[in-house]
Specification:
This protein is α/β, with parallel strands linked by helices. The protein folds into two domains: about 180 residues, Medium-chain alcohol dehydrogenases, catalytic domain (Quinone Oxidoreductase, Chain A, domain 1, Alpha-Beta Complex), CATH 3.90.180.10; about 130 residues, Rossmann fold (3-Layer(aba) Sandwich), CATH 3.40.50.720. It has ten helices and 17 strands. Strands 3, 4, 5, 8, 9, 16 and 17 form a seven-stranded mixed beta sheet that branches. β6 and β7 form a beta hairpin. α3 crosses α4. The longest helix is centred in the middle third of the chain and has 13 residues.
């Protein structure tokens, strides 16, 4: 059956509120380049990056907040967002084996190749190029990972961005069996993924969450939990943690370094409580701490994640699913943070 020339989807027309997201029925279906595949999108997850990009959060200069993406550079608009994608390959470029047509795939959100060119600085799917909030999306074949799983497309779409971010943080910080890992924001998409993935590595996990979610975080693999308002130092004591996986930052940030052991590692990939923190440099160098800012995925991370999904080492956490056209309601629910895991949009 021939592919259509037009498709439906959501475009971001500028930086601001949900009114910047527009439903369109006349978007052109992208054509795969010679090293690309075309994916019919089944489901796409909602994540912080979508909203942060829309509101201009990544800009460090308020005057430029209307024209910067996650790399701190001007974005090309309109843009189809959506970094979390599960779908099926329906067409391939001239240099790609046609046998790949029909494969069920997850798309790696950190792109090292676009339009046949290897990028010096990786792009983020749905930010520097169009993503999965539409019926079809084009991506370099190397970033479309075949997956064999009994999970639904909606469940699989909950994995790519949050779980690869969490796995990347654990990889960069070299988390090993027997170590103690403190995860802030443990009930969010990345945080709940980090709890599962660190536990799968044999680490002892402490999750920071709310009282109403503590039992669910323990069920994911956390040995114990702290409340967000707890004094981490009083609750844990000094030098009791090997690795901090931080998604929160904010005013309590200095205590995260106090609970680290000498030689401890701090990995960060979020700042939902505030990006500006106070650092006593003496803590950093006298304790021989290592800091890891984590955005670009290590090359092996996504393949490792796909294998973990196929083996059943980790499970999907889908809080709610919405039709793509209801993206505004989905993002409002996302912002309320009354759930554990991911919110997913159904597309086809």
């Amino acid at each position: 059956m021939p592919l259509p020339s037009r498709m439906s989807g959501i475009i971001m027309t500028g930086h601001g509120g949900p009114e910047m997201l527009k439903w369109r029925d006349d978007l052109p279906v992208p054509e795969p380049g010679k090293r690309d595949v075309l994916v019919r999108v089944s489901a796409a997850g909602v994540n912080n990056t979508d909203i942060n990009t829309r509101i201009g959060w990544y800009s460090k200069n308020d005057a430029n907040a209307q024209d910067t993406g996650w790399l701190g550079e001007p974005m090309s608009l309109p843009r189809i967002q959506g970094a979390d994608v599960c779908g099926h390959i329906v067409a391939v470029g001239d240099q790609i084996d046609p046998a790949r047509i029909g494969e069920r795939v997850l798309i790696e959100p950190c792109l090292r190749e676009v339009d046949g060119t290897t990028l010096e600085t990786p792009w983020y799917f749905g930010s520097e190029c169009d993503g999965g909030f539409a019926e079809f999306v084009r991506v370099a074949a190397r970033h479309a990972y075949k997956i064999k799983s009994d999970l639904s497309d909606i469940e699989l779409a909950s994995f790519p961005c949050s779980y690869s971010t969490a796995e990347n943080m654990l990889t960069r910080a070299a988390v090993a069996a027997g170590e103690t890992v403190l995860v802030t924001g443990a009930s969010g998409g990345v945080g709940s993924a980090a709890v599962q993935l660190a536990s799968a590595r044999g680490a002892r996990v402490i999750g920071v969450t709310s009282a109403s979610k503590a039992d669910k975080i323990k069920a994911l693999g956390a040995e114990s939990t702290l409340l967000r308002d707890d004094d981490y130092l009083s609750a844990l004591g000094e030098r009791q943690v090997d690795v901090v996986v931080d998604l929160v930052a904010g005013p309590k940030w200095p205590s995260l370094l106090d609970v680290l052991r000498p030689g401890g590692r701090y990995a960060v990939s979020g700042a939902i409580a505030g990006p500006i923190v106070s650092l006593d440099v003496r803590t950093l160098y006298l304790k021989d701490l290592s800091f890891f800012g984590c955005t670009v995925l290590e090359p092996e991370v996504f393949g490792v994640l796909v294998r973990r999904i196929e083996r059943g080492d980790i499970k999907p956490l889908v809080a709610e699913a919405y039709p793509l056209r209801e993206i505004g309601a989905a993002q409002r629910a996302f912002g309320e943070k009354s759930y554990i895991g991911k919110i997913v949009l159904t597309v086809n």
